[in-house]
Amino acid sequence: MTDAPSEAPARDYRGTVFLPKTEFPMRGDLPKREPGWLARWEAMGLRDKLRAQSAGREKFVLHDGPPYANGNLHIGHALNKILKDVINRAAQMSGRDADYVPGWDCHGLPIEWKIEEQYRAKGRDKDAVPILDFRAECRDYATHWLGVQSEEFRRLGVLGDWAGRYATMDFSSEAAIAGEIGKFLMNGSLYRGLRPVMWSPVEKTALAEAEIEYHDHVSPTLWARFRLKSAGAEDLVGASVVIWTTTPWTIPGNRAVAYGPEIDYALVHVEGVAEGSALVSGEFLLVALPLLPQFEKDAGLGAHSVKRLLKGAELEGAISAHPLAGWDGAKGGYGFAVPLLPGDFVTTEAGTGFVHIAPGHGEDDFALGKANGLPVPETVGDDGTFTLQAPGFTGQHVFKAHDAVYAACEATGTLVAKSKLTHSYPHSWRSKKPVIFRATPQWFIAMDDANAIREKSMAALGKTHFVPDIGRNRIGGMVAVRPDWCISRQRAWGVPIPVFVAKQSGEPLRDPAVMERIIAAFRAEGADAWYQPGAAQRFLGADRDAEHFEQVMDIVDVWFESGSTHAFVLTPERGLPFPADLYLEGSDQHRGWFHSSLLESVGSRGVAPFKAILTHGFVLDEQGRKMSKSLGNVVAPQDVVKEYGADILRLWVMNTDVTEDQRIGKEILKQQAELYRRIRNTLRWLLGNLHGFSEEEIVPHAELPELERWVLYRLSELDTRLREAQQSHDWSGVYPDLHAFCATDLSAFYFDVRKDTLYCDAPESLRRRAARTVIDQLHRCLTVWLAPVLVSTAEEAWLARFPNDADSVHLQTWPIIPPEWKFGRLATKWNEIRQYRRLVTAEIEDLRRVGTIGSSLQAAVTIALKADEPANVLTAEQWAEVLIVSQVSFAAPGELVGQVAVAPGQKCDRCWRVLPEVGLSPAHPGLCRRCEAVVG
Which stretches make up the Aminoacyl-tRNA synthetase class Ia domain (predicted)? Predict the structure, then answer.
């Protein structure tokens, strides 16, 4: 008996399948690879090539708001500079000439404060150090940190003119800033005046609104009597007007009391008092009627009667005594009369309906005092202690004086009550200490003189494009009500206000020749020239005697400096036109750089320095909390780059809605790394399936299968999305849409459908060539569109395809999308097809879960489509491709959506489809006809 013949062993067809092939690695390994790309771009002179390539194009200018050269970068810096870089790169790739000049703010109190801290640590006295030596130390400090920050920004992939960066402490910048001050001097808007400004007793200087932050603060409160000495009505004489204040230390500066002319006041007769109350039975008090119930509680008022009601207007002409009049400690210092004056700012929201007026310590107080000829005593010195003009309190610090004021009022019988109040109070954002309003001689720029800066600024804002648009209202509301701009600071490190004041007349000297000499000296020697011996006579010239002039030694507000940066950056010498296309900073800059830039430019040029303003939010931790060292939730950009790479940080920036506050932390960064992995895998798949691709394979658009034309249509939609964002500066959702395209439209659908074609069809087949034609376009579009964000990854993906040493994805422009790609009706049809696919896929998954089939290719599907449904145009073979099943048949239209069954036939050893034709070939019994033809 002979053995039965054995079956022929199954052949291995793996070598005949066209699997993806690429050297583009799966892992980005960004922290190690990114420095190499930075070095490559530096070596090839990428920026110079871009400038040469784009010569003659329309300019795009994003003017850089200067960060402060003081310490390492924080995550907010990273958000800001990355967003700017993405926008600049996108503008360049859209066909503009987008050069970017980074800049730094180098003068001002924070640096000066750091040097003073170093002095204090060494026991040195700053005032004993020659000013030029002190300024040199400040310059060295700023230079060091400018260098550190520059390297940190470059590590984030920010492309710009780093060699030609600007800094406010450059000699040319200091000269330009002096020139800008000179413009306001010459046009009459600059004046010296006495008025209250926000003053930091710790830092001994005036502060701008942008240098203020608000924190909860516990303030002592005071209710005090102002006894009426005379009044129009006889029954009011001898009564006491009661005021309430949260700043008892301002009482020595009191010179009037304000009332509301239309407010109803009660003349109250005190008939009983609570235990411990300072009120006296039998006395008469004046309090606003709506506030009387609260006053009863605050002051311990018991039984009482309202003798009559009166409108505030009846108090016109009334005179009271100062609450400290007759106090022995003052030695007669408060014996003057205190008038009652109408004030439209008096309300009945809190207090007593009366406001004590200290003209040296409040905007409303000062304005009311000025309108009525009140004196403005300088009761407080620059260190926050009382001067000789506050008799009885000289030398005491204002923030510690409330007990002394209470005691003085108690001694004169004018103390009604005292308490404490927790409320929001202005603090210096540098020292974190509370500030005061203090009237001092300062230099101001008038908002409403003949130059009409306020009016012109409001008109300019109306022409500005804002992203988001709410920014228009924020900055507009501030400009509409802001007082004149105080630009003087009593410090040493900065650009001096280069003005001479005639001692005889008190008028500033307005001589263009003098100003030109100053500017020329600053340009050659820096602003230090102002402090050199003999500087005054040098600048005044031979025809004037320096002895007859005061040389102003205040420096200019750093917000004026940064607000004037357009004057030395947007210049013909740099090839950057004025005004800039875009200013971009955090939302806090509505009251900061945007604000000062607007006022400075409008005041010196009559127009805004920007066409558009984009604001981003602040960076919070994952729980939405502000970052702080004490909470341990600070995310440093340097640490993110070290662990994940700059491309991940850049992706995080563009995956957020930058107009809102953003969150970042470990989990969020892990999510961004996962998003990056998907994008990288998309690029890798494209590259792998383009192995050996040549132009001879390209299929004309008209001959492409509809699926391929749908993909190109989606590319046209994304192209429109990116170009609209570039024009509007609104990038919200753009790169999330691009990621969704990669993950959903491509990886989960198109790639899934076309894998069989790419791996198993013959190289010359129309279907495979068409797929590779589209994949070629996908690679070109995606790498260029991703390049502004994933600067290193896009370069790697580009050079993996076009390995030319002189080439770079960053030298490309966005692809021009042919009109034939924009066939919108494909969207509706393929959306419906994909909906059918999802329904059938769900049924297939149900069979896989119960073990009826193991793979979708083991399934045969019967579908029912109505004749008028767009999806009906697909053939059975095309439906099998889309559903990734082996066989599809059609049923009559009805309720049936997709009936799934086990496919009849055998599995092809090469493509794995289950078909009845497998096994019929004598030469290749394990293959289907398609695969047999390819192998054969």
Answer: 37-664
